[in-house]
Design a protein that fits this description.
113 residues; single chain; alpha+beta; elongated; 2 helices
Amino acid sequence: MSVETAIYAALNALAPTFPTVAPQGTTALPRITYQRVAGSDAPNYAGDGMGATSVRVQVDVWALDYATARRLSDQARAALYAALTVGSITDNPSDYESDTKLHRASFDVEAWE
């Protein structure tokens, strides 16, 4: 199973989850979006390119209020730690989108395939 498939499965168990952006017209709240923002291959001593792959994914939790977004974000972090080999999780700035009236809690997760 790829890291992105495992991330989707872990997050979708908590709330409706979409890669990159929620489709237009999506009303489900709270919801989660995620996107791959970086990746790298760790070399190995054999030089055959078969080292481990690290993937960094940004996870955004969207809700009508900040407390709900933060709570679900904490649950998402715990779910990812349980489902994946996580190298680190880094917080991103929280945000409020006035056009959608949604609060966002965001973090990056580094996971290993």
